[in-house]
Each structure stands twice: as C-alpha cells, then as structure tokens.
C-alpha cells in the first residue's frame, strides 16, 4: 500500500541547547526531545539505563500476599506448580520463576498447556492433575487473569492459586477469586510502570523473594531471560522495560546456560546481542515451540544439564521454526486471497483447520498489508479459534467487548487478541465489528502513515551518525529505530533480487557518494514504485552498521521510496 509520509517537526533551538548540554549532535538531541526526553536529566537516564531504574517489587498490588504464601510453601516443603502460557513470554517466565524458586530451595513442577487441546489460560483438569501429583500451590505466568472457573475450583478444593499476569482484567467481573493476583494492570494497582511483560511480572516476584532471603546480588542474573521474553513479546521498551532489556542483553553473550548458548548457536548469533537479534532470531525459535505444540521443550532447553542435550533441543526448535515459516506462508497467502474480496472496515477471514499456531501471524500480515483490523479464524468441528490484530490507534479489545455476547471466550489488549466462537456466529460478528470499525474510522484518513523522524542530508548520513543513534538501543516497541528521509538519491542500476523476495539497491547522490540499501520483501512491497536505473528518488529508511568479517559499512533498510520529479541525465 502507498503510505502517507509525515515528517516530524523539531524545535531547532531546543535541540541545539540540549545538544550542547549533552555533547551530542543536534540530530540526536532532536530525536531525544521528540521521544519525551527534553531535559538533560531525562535524556541522560534514557541513554544510560541502569539497575537503579528497576522499581521496588513490593509496590505491586498482591505481591506481599503472594511472596508470603510462596515463602511458607518453601519452608513447609510443599510442591509448587508453575503454570506458564505457551508463548515466548510465558515459557521464559516459567524458566525464570523455576530457577529462582530452585535457588531458594523450592520444589516445583511445571505445566505448559497444549494450545490446541487445552487452549489459552488455566484449566481445571490441569489443576486436578497437579493436585494428584502432590502440588498444593500453583503460580501462573503470563495467564490466568480471566480464568474465573479454575480459580473458583481451586478455592473450593483447598488448592491455592497465585495469578501473575500482565493482561487486562475483565472490565465487568474484575479478577478471579485467587489466593493472590500480581498484575500491574489490575484495578487498584498503583505500580509506576504498566508495561511489564508476563516474564517481567515473574521477574518482579523472583526479585521480591530473593531480596527477602538476602540474595539481592543474584537478581541481575535473571535479567537475561527477562530481556528475551520482554523483547520477543513486543512489549514497549520504555521505562523499566528499557532497563531490564538493556542490562539483560549486555549479559546474554556471557551466559553459562547451556540452552541459551545452544539457541544462540542455532540462530547464528555471535558475541554481541541486540533487540533485533532477540526479535528476529532468538524469539521466533522459542515462539515456534508453542505454536507447533512443543512449549515444554523451551523449559527443557533452558534447564538442559549439558551442551549436547541443549544442542539437540535447540536444533529441534530451529527445525520447528522453519516448519512454522512454511505453514505461516501458506495460511497467510490463503487469508490474503480471501481478504482481497473484503471491502470492509474490519477484515474477518476463515479457513477450515488452518494451523492455529500461525493464525496470529497471518492476521498481523493481513492487517499490515490492507491497513484494517483483522481477525483470522481456524474452524474445526463447528468451533472457530481466532487471532486478531489492530492497526493505528484502533482499540481491538474495546471492539470485541462491543459484541462480547457472540464469543465463547476472548481476551487480549488494544493491539492483539485471541478468541473462540461458534462458527455459526462468525457472519454476525463480522457485521458488528465492521459497523464498529466504520464508526471509529468515519472521521479518519485510513491511509497508512509512515512517521519520519528527521530529514537527513547525504553529507550527514554516515557511520558516525549511526553509531551515535545506537546509544538509543535497545530499539523496539515504544522506542522504534529512527526513520529518516533523504532526497536526491539516484538508483545506479537494476535492483538485485535476493532469495526471490528481497531487493538490494545501490544508490548515489549527485556528487557520486554511494549507499547500499536493502528492502526486505521488496519484490512485493515495491509494486507501483519506479526502480529504473537513473531514477531520482526520496528514500525513507532506517540506518544500520553492517559488520561482516571484521569490516563495517553503512546499510540503509528501506521503509518506503517515491520518485522525485528530476531524473539524472
């Protein structure tokens, strides 16, 4: 789709003043101000995240009750069940909490539900089995905030349930009646940062338990796994999350954990780790386990007792990730083909027995390509399991709440949600969601917007600029890599096609200064754009330092391009 380019306006006087205070370039200062760090103090904290920026865990509502109960369980030798969600957030949180409780002398088992046979959240049969196995306390990770019936069963059967989660509570019924609920987003919780991932909440619980035992010095060791889960779950990398991820990523290359080392080897990660490595290499391999019904393999990987065992498990996850990619491509293609005929404000597409592990990824792709909120359903035996993704500022969970009576179950947040519904109700759901979205979009221009942080000249565009902007790492949700625009670039020759779907462009300015640009999925995304040799273009891009065999070069990652009127002679 063609995008509307919006170039951010800057206060050049304020940028110059901040640049002088911090001894940075005016460009860096302008970017800091645009992200809300307009004073030297705020900017310095942003550039230098530290453990001091991690909040007191006892500020979380329910933390005292939860920690007291867990300490009693450890002291009395009770067996504790850790019930984690099957995605990367839940599995990494389960690994983290199991490790912390083991250090404190706790006896634990774990359960990662099968997303196909059990579905999302806590279920009564699983709790019953845990009780029969000798557990008397269960702690959820990244799930449970809407598990009302299981919580009721646990209370009636003397089985204590502690819920740790970060998803939104039910707006009508509030929280389940559990022994304790630890969730920064629950009603009445005054915790200063609402952006914690599920693994982040698990980290806070581990932090509280460790410091009660005088083991504060061990807390930083848990930031590695917390960082991986936080980035991979696409949580906002601002505030406390920024500190968790920045500190944790620095420590990842030095890990002694066999599983993480084997996973890094399988993913082709070397000595330095960035949020990009987690988001596009490590995270997908962990996530593939839950998507392809191997969630418990993640826990087994991180708890492997030797490198040989870890490598075998890492290779299995790597293989499942490749399998996931193939399945995802097929489902996405089918969903896009069906959605092409949908001239609606809200896209709802269905398929018989589409792989439920990839429908969320397909929904994300359709929403991105068509610029509309999207739900992709997989229908099996009259029940449709769906995954939805939003666009722009459209609040997806609010939309689902408006037709809540049609669902068997649903939950999520503003940008993404999951649900189950009887297949006979899908047409009515589509009608109601379309009406809801049409009303919300009535006064909005739904042309996808590309927000450009700054216009940069070819004289400024170099490795020195890129290395300065690298101080803004870790990049991710809430702190995206800056997007720049440069005018007056010429395409020097035909684009080179890579792996049948990506493009490499060699560009130059009017003085002959050359730049290398890569356009991921450019074969598809360049439709309608002019890429003829000699064409003069405006380029929107992010800039990176590409290191290969010890040599560094500037590489531009294309976001979009458009032709300028002038053509090089």
What's the topology here?
Blueprint: E1 4-7, H1 12-22, H2 26-34, H3 40-47, H4 63-76, E2 79-84, H5 88-103, E3 107-111, H6 124-132, E4 135-141, H7 148-156, E5 160-164, E6 180-182, H8 198-212, H9 223-232, H10 239-251, H11 258-267, H12 275-291, H13 295-302, H14 307-339, E7 347-352, H15 359-370, E8 374-380, E9 383-389, H16 396-401, E10 407-412, E11 416-422, H17 426-441, E12 449-452, E13 454-455, H18 463-469, E14 484-491, E15 496-498, E16 502-508, E17 514-519, H19 522-525, E18 536-548, E19 551-563
Parallel strand pairs: 1-12, 2-3, 2-4, 4-5, 5-6, 7-8, 13-14, 17-19
Antiparallel strand pairs: 8-9, 9-11, 10-11, 14-16, 14-18, 15-16, 16-17, 18-19
Helix pairs in contact: 1-2, 5-8, 5-9, 5-13, 8-9, 9-10, 9-12, 11-14, 12-13, 12-14, 13-14, 14-15
Textual characterization of the structure:
There is one protein chain. With 569 residues, this protein is an alpha/beta fold. Helix content is 40%, strand content 21%. It has a five-stranded parallel sheet with strand order 3-2-4-5-6, with helices on both faces. A five-stranded mixed sheet has the order 7-8-9-11-10, with helices on both faces. β13, α18 (463-469) and β14 (484-491) form a beta-alpha-beta unit. α9 crosses α10 and α12 (275-291) packs across α13. The protein is globular. The two termini are 30 Å apart. The relative contact order is 0.09.
